[in-house]
Structures are given as structure tokens and as C-alpha cells.
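Support request from a user on the community tier.

User writes: "When I paste my C-alpha cells into the form, the page sometimes reloads and wipes my input. The last time it worked, I copied everything first. Here is what I submitted, just in case something in the input itself triggers the reload:"
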């Protein structure tokens, strides 16, 4: 196959909380997880951190999400239900905004229509390990599937654009600097994040 296929492993998803306290962060963590795994696109669009739409229009994001999970040629992507194992960071007030960094487990399965050639399997595995910053990548040749488990990072934000309510944005090295300045990134202790994994079949 001579087509470049891509998979977005980290979604720019957020959900709405009810206040700026730690209790609301924890109470809504499972809600976020359920929405993500169920691919409830309507809720995703309603609950996303609004400034993201200044970079990626809502309709474009919705189309991209649907293509990623429903319209790929040669493979399918499925988010898998696993225990999130949330680790909540302290709430930090920076200027007029409140932030909290949340780490959690995420897992997904790639199901290919055709098996990966034997000589290319390790290359695929190594690529996902590098891009997802994980060692938990397993290819099941008989079933033509690849299971990937990794830690993901959410940024909880409450500010004037969210009416002081929590919204959550999956962290991305590329997107975060387009929304927030370097000072915020530094104060939150943010480093490299898992990004897009590019899959290419020759």
C-alpha cells in the first residue's frame, strides 16, 4: 500500500466542570473518560476549552475526529476502556487563570484490514513507542491488531472564557503554545507530550 495513513492518538478533548475546586476536578474525571471512550462527539464539542476553536474551527475538529475513528482506509482505531488511574496536580493560579495538570492512562487498538508485513512489524512498534512515549505496544499478528497503552496529560483550565468553570484540554506540544504563553508552560512544568503517530505502508 502506498498511502500515508495517520492516527491522532491524543485527542484535543475537554469537558466542563462546575467550579474551580479540586473536588470538581476529581468528580468529573470519570465523566471525561466515559465521553472520550464512547466518542460522544456532541459532548466533546460542547465541553471543549473554547480557545482551541480559535486555532481549529469546531467543524474542522469534528470532521477530523470522525475521520480518525470512522473513515480510515485500511485500518480502524478503537479507544479501549481501561482504568484511568488519574493523578491530579495542584491547582495553580496564574494571572487570571486557574490550571491543574492531570495525568491518566489511555489505551487504543488499531485494527488493520491486512496484516503488517513481518519485516515491518518492529518498525511500527518502535515508531509507536517513540511517538507515544510508552513501552507498552503489542502487535497481535493473527488478529492484525496493535494494542497501545500510554499515559496522557490533561490541562484543566478555568478562566473568563469558561465562566470560571473547569474545561479540560489534552496536552499537545504543538497546540499548547498557540493558546498559552511560555510562562504558563514553565510554571505548570510541562514537557514533551505524546503526539501524532504517523503510519505509512509501502
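"...and here is what came back when it finally went through:"
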Amino acid at each position: 500500500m502506498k498511502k500515508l495513513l495517520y492516527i491522532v492518538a491524543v485527542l484535543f478533548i475537554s469537558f466542563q466542570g462546575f467550579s474551580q475546586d479540586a473536588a470538581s476536578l476529581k468528580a468529573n474525571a470519570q465523566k471525561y473518560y466515559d465521553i472520550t471512550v464512547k466518542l460522544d462527539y456532541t459532548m466533546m464539542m460542547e465541553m471543549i476549552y473554547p480557545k482551541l476553536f480559535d486555532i481549529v474551527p469546531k467543524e474542522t475538529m469534528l470532521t477530523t475526529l470522525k475521520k480518525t475513528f470512522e473513515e480510515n482506509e485500511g485500518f480502524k482505531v478503537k479507544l479501549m476502556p481501561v482504568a484511568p488511574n488519574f493523578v491530579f496536580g495542584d491547582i495553580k493560579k496564574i494571572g487570571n487563570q486557574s490550571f491543574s495538570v492531570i495525568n491518566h492512562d489511555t489505551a487504543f487498538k488499531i485494527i488493520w484490514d491486512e496484516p503488517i508485513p513481518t519485516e515491518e512489524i518492529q518498525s511500527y512498534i518502535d515508531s509507536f513507542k517513540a511517538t507515544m512515549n510508552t513501552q507498552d505496544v503489542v502487535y497481535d499478528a493473527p488478529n492484525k491488531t496493535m494494542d497501545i497503552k500510554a499515559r496522557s496529560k490533561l490541562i484543566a483550565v478555568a478562566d473568563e472564557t469558561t465562566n470560571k468553570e473547569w474545561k479540560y484540554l489534552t496536552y499537545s506540544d504543538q497546540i499548547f503554545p498557540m493558546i498559552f504563553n511560555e510562562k504558563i508552560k514553565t510554571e505548570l512544568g510541562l514537557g514533551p507530550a505524546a503526539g501524532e503517530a504517523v503510519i505509512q505502508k509501502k
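Agent notes: The reload is a front-end session timeout and is unrelated to the input. Residues 45 and 65 are 11 Å apart (CA to CA). The beta strands are 4-7, 75-79, 87-88, 92-94, 97-112, 136-140, 145-158, 167-170, 197-200. Escalated to web team.
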